[in-house]
Amino acid sequence: MGDSGNLEASIDRLLNEEKQMRLAENVAGTRKAATEILQLCFEAKDWKLLNEQILNLSKKRGQLKQAVQSMVQQAMQYIDQTPDIETRIELIKTLNNVSAGKIYVEIERARLTRKLAKIKEDQGQIAEAADLMQEVAVETFGAMAKTEKIAFILEQVRLCLDRQDYVRAQILSRKINPRVFDADTKKDKKKPKEGENIVEEAPADIPTLLELKRIYYELMIRYYSHNNEYLEICRSYKSIYDIPSVKETPEQWIPILRKICWFLVLAPHDPMQSSLLNATLEDKNLPQGNHGSQSRTQILSMSFIGFRETFF
User: Fold this and answer.
1) 222-245: string of b/e by CB count within 10 Å (b at 16+)?
2) d(CA 154, CA 13)
3) Which helix (H) or strand (E) holds 72?
4) Are 166 and 160 in contact (CB under 8 A)?
5) How far apart are alpha carbons 300 and 163 in whole angstroms?
6) Which of 70, 87, 120, 142 fits a disulfide with 82 by CB distance 3.0 to 4.6 angstroms?
7) How far apart are CA 36 and CA 19, in angstroms?
8) CA–CA distance, 247 with 254 (Å, rounded to integer)
9) Distances (CA, A) of 21 to 15, 78, 123, 126, 219
10) Of 211, 258, 200, whose CA–CA distance to 234 is shortest?
11) How far is the CA of 131 from the CAs of 21, 44, 156, 178, in angstroms?
């Protein structure tokens, strides 16, 4: 009872302080008072009160954007420390409600949505997870890191494939231009001009651009396999094969090159198939031999057989 009374008294004191700072438009003071209130609730493990205070503070008249942003960012750190899944979901939903429609916390909202979608997926609710992810259009977020945008869209694509919504998966995949994976990441980043958004650093758990490239093409292989688009499957494997880290590791490139050969043989003959066939036949990793007057497809088929005998 005493601890509860102390908590209530401390929060009341900070609420008065927050009000004074907010009315004086003191950003640092408002932010400090608001986040201290949340920290008190967290330390007391009073999750219900935490949710109430987040909503209460965010709805204060003339509440400062910086204070709301700081509250959301701080409360997000508490998510993984919740005692059970129900408490976790409730906190995420509270933060989603606070961040809804606010551009200055759109990145936080996207991350919260992804967390909630992951929970739904773990509970076997794939359709619900996919619907949640599609509510957020990260391609319009100017301040979100490029890799985080791509990772988010790829999650949208994956969930659509998991629910066998191939039409939506294709639409979402077109939001990613494959040429983005060939960008020179070593180039110095340009400093934003006045008035431009400052791009945030991607979280540590976001894959690198080349890792995202592999994920992208693996998802596209799943999509093309649905319609038996053998040439597109082959081209996707070729894009994975060309990733430097893959080419440096025989355990990785051997099975991929084998699949390139296989799907090239299955693909209908056309100029693109012919071009890829010629390029593949010139690959030094492919077993070579004297094939006389045999057709290129026959050569590739025999190379594929020899390739299997060589490496398997």
Assistant:
1) bbbeeeebbbbbbbbbbbbbebee
2) 46
3) helix 65-76
4) yes
5) 36
6) 87
7) 14
8) 9
9) 10, 25, 43, 45, 51
10) 258
11) 40, 35, 9, 25
For residue 156, give both structure tokens. Answer: 């949208």
Nearest to 114 by CA among 54, 170, 66, 154: 154
For residue 57, the Cα-to-chain-centroid distance in whole angstroms is 30
Least Cα distance to 286 among 273, 301, 275 occurs for 301
What are the counts of helices (DSSP H) followed by strands (DSSP E) for the chain? 15, 0
**Which two tokens mark 92?**
């995420």
The CB density around residue 215, as the number of other CB atoms within 10 Å, is: 18
Question: How far apart, in whole angstroms, are the C-alpha atoms of residue 290 and residue 281?
Answer: 13
What DSSP state is assigned to residue 40? H
Half-sphere exposure of 99 (CA within 13 A, CB side): 24
Q: Which two tokens stand for residue 69?
A: 């942003």
For the chain, the C-alpha Rg in angstroms (whole number) is 26
pLDDT for position 312 = 40
What single-letter DSSP state applies at residue 206? S
Q: How many other C-beta atoms lie within 10 A of the C-beta of residue 41? A: 22
Q: How far apart are the first and last CA of the chain?
A: 72
DSSP secondary structure letter of residue 125? -
Rounded to two decimals, what is the model's pTM?
Answer: 0.87
3-state secondary structure of 83: coil
